[in-house]
Amino acid sequence: MKHIVIIGGGIAGIETACALTDAGHWVTVIEKDSQLGGKLNNWSYLFPDFTPTEKITVELQAKCRDKDFSILTSTEISTILRKDGKFNIETSSDQKLEADAVVVATGYELFDAHRKEEYGYKIYDHVITSADLEELLKPGGDLTVAAGKYPKRIAFVHCVGSRDEKSGNHYCSKVCCITGVKQAIELKMRLPDAEIFCFYMDLRMYGKHFEELYREAQEKYDIQFIRGRLSEASEKIDKSLLIKSEDTLSGRPLKMNVDLMVLLVGMEAGKGTANAAKACGIGCEESGFLKTTDTFLKSNFSEQEGIFLAGSCTAPMSVNDTILHARSAAMEVKHWLSKR
Amino acid sequence: METTPFILPFTIGLLFISCFLVIIIGIWISSLSRIDKSRIIHSILTKKSWFAIREIVMESLLHRKIFRKNPVLGYMHMSLAFGWFLLIVVGHIEACNHYQTFSVPAYMAIFMRYFVTEPSTTLSGKILSASMDLLLLFVLSGVVLAYYKRANSRLFGMKKTTQLKLGDRIALISLWLIFPLRFLAESVSAGIHHNGSIISHPTGELLASIFPVHSFEMPLWWAYSGALGLFFFALPVSRYMHIPVEVVLIFLRNYGIKVQKRIGGYSRIQVYSCSRCGICLDSCQMSHAAIKDTQSVYILKHIRNKNLTDEKLFNCLLCGRCQPDCPVGLELNNLRITQRIESTKEYNSSYEYLKNGKIAVSPQTEVIYFAGCMTHLTPAIIKSVKEIFAVAGVKYWFMDEEKTACCGRPLMQVGQYEAAKKLIEHNRMQILSSGVKKIVVSCPICYKVFNEDYALPGIRVMHHSEYLLELMADKRLPINKLPLRVVYHDPCELGRGSSIYHQPRLLLDEYVELIPIKNEKKTALCCGGSLANIKIQMNERNQIRDTALDEYLAYQPDLLATACPLCKKTFTKSNKLPIHDIAEIVYMAILNKMDIEINISTQIEKANADKNLRF
Amino acid sequence: MKNFGYSIIKQRTIDYDQFDGRLLNEVLEMEPSFKVCLSCGGCTATCSAGDLVSFNVRRMNLLLRRGETIELESEIQKCMLCGKCMLVCPRGINLRNVIMLIKKSIAKYKPINS
């Protein structure tokens, strides 16, 4: 029986683990947090159809229970050494594992909005990130901006920490556009009297039903889209925010007072992925995401034979894409092992 | 007195260079402004001239500044300059002593060992000729070092050395030949006449025993005189023009003349005073981004050669790091700005849209707060300053809260002084009409221009680090030392630009643990974000920034403190360690203290409440 | 001249075949970072001059690329070179150099009959 170690217990890791267990392999998942699920745990509803995240997590948990694979939570890998065609892995809790193949599924981290100082995150009271909003959108979440006062006007800012040389991230995080549209609709459903504006550079509705949701946001929810990147925000005495942008389609600077500003933060490869890359001796791209050996045909292969990649550690990905990428990783691992 | 044809190259050369120098320096001085000319007239018979002479001895002859920076390089310069100077002086004394007259022509002194065929008999003659031999040895040791430096500049601690043009090459080769030829010619003559002194005598005897020295004598003296003549002719087109011009520069500088915002006699004197030693190359951070042809030494050379391009002129951060190192003390930043003014003088905007509105503010207003354009992109600084003002009870008017014209300094850095005047006038009117007597600025770029170019009589311009220090000294701010190790980065415009080194440090000392570092104050690094460079590419800026950050990271600070929004923005981009402005740190410390106090007071309240319950 | 109530109306269509690209090419050659503008408008939004007068930095790119040299020349005078635009630009364009380059080269390429 072949042993496969999967680094990361998010959706990519679990999905790969399940598929490889089904194929008759022995799998160990190493997760640095105390629970499985990764970043999915921070999300409440998923685009484009508002599926509650629990639906996915419950199913994943059920799978974990049913399938027979080992899970090491609150554990990180310290070293991986290749010896006689095997991988000798040492963990932070001094366990020693021997694996025939390794799958890196370390996922991503959200951009720290604090780095975009001009938007005032953690400086002004009513600037939040999309992840913060997701928490507030849970049933019972408090959306007031002052005692008994709900925001009348809300701005969503696209591309925070993405497509931005100043943040050091030149790439597009792919999912923030549709996240913004989804969250704008959710907010409008909760606060029908609020005016909601999305400030975008380009709207990239690349997935199934994304464009339809965008249209719905305009048609049914009166969400307004302004093409312009926010340059800065300042806080007024009443804690409302004065934001500055250009309405590029009318070619004039635009100022607007809003009660709440939501920053649609992008994805970064993060420390977990960087550490895994170092331990495995595999390369990163300039963006920090892990290098695959071929864009089309080998999107699960790392530069090291026997080390495979799954999910958003290779590029920003939606939940859906991550699951598909994880399954294809499992297939590649299985195929590779069968040849040995 | 005797004479011989080989004195001609030297004599003609000396005549040429004397006439040339008198004419060119005359032209430069006559093109000085009237004020500068009257400065000369009023200072020439004061002790300023004495200071100038002292400086010439210390710097032009002894090269004290280079000595301090690098003893080997200092010795090389000193042996050549001071040694040669003494050779001329002592040589003349020797000639005067020998011929027993004061009117000895220059060639008689220079070529004396050819004309005098008897050994010196008097004691004074013996001492003088011995010291001449030793002096020549002293100079020759410098020449040997100079040969070695060309071959291997690392010995001298310099990473780079400057490249030579044809004029320089001729002058350099003739300079290198002068002293060895003199030594050989004198030794050969000593061998023939069996005279000479402690070194030339044995060398002469030795040469005479090996070679037919009689046939060598004339060619060697011709070559020596030729090398001198060639050197004099090459001088105007070589970097060695700095030798005579620097003397003039030192006098004028001591008379209080400075580089004006236009190209003139004095700026030319400065340009020609550059010896191209290349010391400015070592301190220039542009080389961290592999930019190696825009440093001050090259700019001055291009100005002389009239082939300066915008690409080079504007590819400089104007951080001023090279300036304190310059052994000649040239105003390198101002010289570059002068060129920038010239290069952009036709393109100054008039900003007719600016309306000089007068401002009425509340009479209780204590200070004007001017955040600056950049600071609006670092709102943590603005918020901290506002909160600190609230804690200290400062009544202020936030001048650029919503909008205002730029301070004008970014325009000046690219040479647009005329355009900047319009912005300055606009802001100045607002400040003056407010009637407030203190203006606090958060951006060092604005601070410098408010201080230097805004005529604001009776109004104190302060950077917020100065003002917060004053508030602290007046006990208007609580003190609370945070257990944080902090490296302070001197912003160029505040540090070298405005000499504000101590106030930020005194302030930080009260609130955090400040780590002293190697490159601080005058030698502080630039963040790489400077607005003065309009040619540098973003990736090059990043390289300069990262090299500076790596140096700071080696001290393992908890955070990096600065006092400039532009430095903060530049460093923050790298995401390597937390960067905060001084105001933020002070605010953090105060807030932390108040939190503790609130906690204690709530605990006391709670304890009292418990007591009430009990009793 | 008698006013007949007519005026020469500027053509509404961009006639790209009439476009004189020399100024554009010169600027792009000297400052290639100007090529990567994605017209987000961050520069215009933050512009200090734009707070005081109707001025759109982003449009400099369009005016240059569409050959509107006369308007470009008068508009570009409004810039105060404060550099805020460069601190917000998501593509890291060296805008201050672009402004100076345009100011310096524009006279060479201005239509003569203007």
Question: Would you kindly provide a written description of the structure presented here, covering whatever features stand out?
Answer:
The complex is a heterotrimer of chains A (340), B (615) and C (114). Chain A is of the alpha/beta class and 340 residues long. Chain A has seven helices and 20 strands. Chain A has two domains: 177 residues, FAD/NAD(P)-binding domain, CATH 3.50.50; 155 residues, FAD/NAD(P)-binding domain (3-Layer(bba) Sandwich). In chain A, the strands form six sheets. Chain A has a five-stranded parallel sheet with strand order 5-2-1-9-20, with helices on both faces. Chain A has a five-stranded parallel sheet with strand order 11-18-12-13-14. Chain A starts with a strand and ends with a helix. In chain B, β7, α26 and β8 form a beta-alpha-beta unit. A four-stranded parallel sheet of chain B has the order 2-1-3-4. A four-stranded parallel sheet of chain B has the order 6-5-7-8, with helices on both faces. Chain B is elongated and about 105 Å long. The C terminus of chain B is likely disordered. Chain C contains six helices and no strands. Chain C has a single domain, classed as Fumarate Reductase Iron-sulfur Protein, Chain B, domain 2, CATH 1.10.1060. The chains are: A alpha/beta (340), B mainly alpha (615), C mainly alpha (114). Chains B and C meet through loops of B and α5 and α6 of C.
Secondary structure layout plus pairing:
The complex is a heterotrimer of chains A (340), B (615) and C (114).
Chain A: E1 3-7, H1 11-22, E2 26-30, E3 45-46, E4 51-52, H2 53-66, E5 70-72, E6 77-83, E7 86-91, E8 96-99, E9 101-104, E10 109-110, E11 127-129, H3 130-136, E12 153-160, H4 176-190, E13 195-200, H5 210-219, E14 224-227, E15 232-235, E16 241-247, E17 252-258, E18 260-265, E19 267-268, H6 270-280, E20 307-309, H7 319-339
Helix pairs in contact in A: 1-7, 4-5
Chain B: H1 7-30, H2 34-43, H3 47-61, H4 64-69, H5 71-99, H6 106-110, H7 112-115, H8 123-151, H9 166-193, H10 200-210, H11 213-234, H12 242-254, H13 265-272, H14 279-283, H15 296-305, H16 310-313, H17 322-325, H18 332-344, E1 367-370, H19 379-392, E2 396-398, H20 409-413, H21 417-434, E3 438-441, H22 444-452, E4 460-463, H23 464-473, E5 485-488, H24 502-511, E6 513-514, H25 538-553, E7 559-562, H26 565-572, E8 579-581, H27 582-614
Parallel strand pairs in B: 1-2, 1-3, 3-4, 5-6, 5-7, 7-8
Helix pairs in contact in B: 1-11, 1-13, 3-12, 5-8, 8-9, 9-10, 9-11, 12-13, 15-18, 19-27, 23-24, 24-27
Chain C: H1 22-30, H2 42-46, H3 58-65, H4 69-76, H5 84-88, H6 95-109
Helix pairs in contact in C: 1-6
